């Protein structure tokens, strides 16, 4: 997997090459990273990369020519390395990324990631050179560098050999459409008396698997019911959700027996849903 990143602040990506999963993957050649600064593709003494917006308004807009030349150079370098890369712009107006999207992105040869700044990028550049626009959430950041790093981290950890244990990524939240189950480690009992659930100490792997699946379903039902709305539920999953609905929000027998996924994905009476981190989307 090859990443070419176009950024006015390439030094921000240094941390990726120094610590953690991404750094190890880069060091092992599982992924490669090359940084491109649009200022290197300017042709004026001041190396100008932005200008005032036509029509007035606050802020500055990134100019198309330096970005176009930087993207072209990145394409040429990628092709020389045998990689057919697509171009993605990290944008508040982009498609909100899901784990399924990350899996699709990881299947590609490579990506040229454009990190925006200021009020954004000249729309003509996006029309001419960008294949996709991505958002990591409905919130505002100072630039696209952090979102680009988020995408790289999410993608690289799916690549074979990137993680110490191959099954780690498969057990993550969202990999099977559900949030992850709770996890515990030593000590068995904390000072405040909280204990590890007994089933995890039983050695019964089938029972542990059932417990983890139920916990994942329950956590998803409580925190991200939207993830269940489009899910093709198995009989066992439907039974778990029926039990949760019946226990959390008592109904008369007619309502309970006719419970639907739509009902199950509504907050139980008197239960306040924790706010999901995925409810905040954006970057610049």
TrEMBL record:
Write out the ranges of the annotated region (Disordered): 245-284
Instruction: List, alphabetically, the CDD domains matched.
Output: TrmD-like
- What do the Gene Ontology cellular component annotations say? cytosol
Share an example GO biological-process annotation for this protein: tRNA N1-guanine methylation
tRNA methyltransferase TRMD/TRM10-type domain: from which residue to which, for each copy? 1-228
* Entry keyword Lipoprotein: no
Per the record, the major location class is cytoplasm
* Protein's UniProt keywords contain S-adenosyl-L-methionine: yes
Which Gene Ontology molecular function entries are recorded, alphabetically? Answer: tRNA (guanine(37)-N1)-methyltransferase activity
The EC number(s) given in the record are 2.1.1.228
Localization, UniProt = Cytoplasm
Q: Where does S-adenosyl-L-methionine bind?
A: 116, 136-141
Q: Which Gene3D superfamilies match?
A: 3.40.1280.10, tRNA(m1g37)methyltransferase, domain 2 (1.10.1270.20)
From which residue to which does any coiled coil extend?
none
- Reaction equation(s) it catalyzes: guanosine(37) in tRNA + S-adenosyl-L-methionine = N(1)-methylguanosine(37) in tRNA + S-adenosyl-L-homocysteine + H(+)
Q: Where is the composition biased (Basic and acidic residues)?
A: 270-284
Q: Which UniProt keywords apply?
A: Cytoplasm, Methyltransferase, S-adenosyl-L-methionine, Transferase, tRNA processing
Q: Which InterPro entries match?
A: Alpha/beta_knot_MTases, tRNA_m1G_MeTrfase_C_sf, tRNA_m1G_MeTrfase_TrmD, tRNA_m1G_MTases_N, tRNA_MeTrfase_TRMD/TRM10
**Bias category Polar residues: which stretches?**
255-266
Q: Which family does it belong to?
A: Belongs to the RNA methyltransferase TrmD family.
Its quaternary structure?
Answer: Homodimer.
What role does this protein play?
A: Specifically methylates guanosine-37 in various tRNAs.
Protein name, as recorded = tRNA (guanine-N(1)-)-methyltransferase
